[in-house]
Design brief:
The protein has about 270 residues and is mainly beta. The chain folds into two domains: about 110 residues, no CATH class; about 150 residues, no CATH class. The strands form three sheets. Strands 9, 10, 11, 12, 13, 14, 15, 16 and 17 form a nine-stranded mixed sheet that branches. It has a four-stranded antiparallel sheet with strand order 1-2-3-4, with no helix packed on it. It has a four-stranded antiparallel sheet with strand order 5-6-7-8, with no helix packed on it. The longest helix has 18 residues. It is globular and about 50 Å long.
Length: about 270
């Protein structure tokens, strides 16, 4: 165990002991049982912490004060805070709201920081990872069920985006900086992490990390993409899921429409 892991373990145990003072039994088992541990800074400068065990998640302050305790209907594989606008209107987006997001294998549950009212969103595929970026979530699709890597073609939808718990799921498009005005979908990569308007991806084919900048698709982007049917083959079209808060996006036969494509990833830097 390195020094950073040791320090984190000590910190968790200290918080655990403090939590027991308020008869909070979530920490009764050993610290090794903790699944995911995340901190979040509030607008007032204070910090809250969320941790999971199985299907349970608790949020508490550094002094051990319990903020909330939630139980999901599925094993929680990750948690994150998702800041998004309160309205879906571009003209009047409202105010920023933090959602505590519970990630399962095929679903997300969103809880507002102020209350326990959940918003559910289910996917017609298995999730590999969820990453928070500026005003959106990036959802990485898992292709573990494909044993033969050759089956993971560049025409397969690999990344999706979600801007609000009640919004529609939309594909994310990659732009190859070496080819002017050409957009493609690819699954030969793995997301490493996100920060603000950047997404770090490992390119397995080139054995290198690529830093992408994230931007919203323009009307010109959408017209160009709509005229490129190969970007969305028939077998990969998204179908509505009965479990989602709202139906996920459908694409027409011409390819992606303006309402379906929201984000463009452009190469910002390449490194080994």
């Amino acid at each position: 165990m390195n020094d950073s892991e040791s320090d984190n373990s000590v910190e968790v145990k200290m918080i655990s002991a403090s939590a027991r003072k308020i008869e909070f039994d979530f920490w009764d088992r050993s610290c090794e049982d903790i699944g995911v541990y995340r901190e979040h800074a509030l607008a007032d400068g204070s910090c809250i912490i969320a941790a999971t065990k199985g299907c349970e998640v608790v949020v508490f302050r550094r002094n051990g004060e319990l903020v909330r305790r939630l139980t999901a209907k599925f094993p929680i594989v990750d948690i994150l805070w998702f800041p998004c606008w309160s309205r879906l209107s571009a003209e009047d987006p409202g105010e920023k709201i933090d959602y505590l997001t519970l990630v399962g294998e095929r679903e997300l549950v969103f809880y507002q920081t102020e209350d326990d009212h959940p918003f559910y969103f289910s996917f017609p595929f298995k999730i590999r990872g969820v990453f928070a970026a500026n005003d959106c979530l990036i959802i990485e699709r898992s292709w573990d069920h494909l044993i033969n890597r050759a089956e993971k073609t560049e025409e397969s939808i690999y990344l999706y985006t979600l801007t609000h718990p009640l919004d529609e799921l939309r594909p994310v498009i990659f732009r190859d900086g070496d080819i002017t005005n050409f957009y493609m979908l690819t699954v030969s990569n793995q997301v490493v992490g996100s920060f603000n308007s950047c997404l770090l991806i490992y390119d397995d084919a080139k054995k290198a990390h690529v830093l992408y900048s994230i931007r919203k698709a323009t009307s010109d982007d959408c017209r160009m993409i709509s005229g490129t049917p190969r970007l969305l083959p028939e077998r990969h079209k998204i179908q509505p899921s009965p479990k989602t808060s709202t139906p996920v996006s459908r694409e027409n036969d011409a390819g992606l429409t303006c309402s379906c494509c929201l984000l463009i990833l452009e190469v910002a830097s390449r490194c080994v």
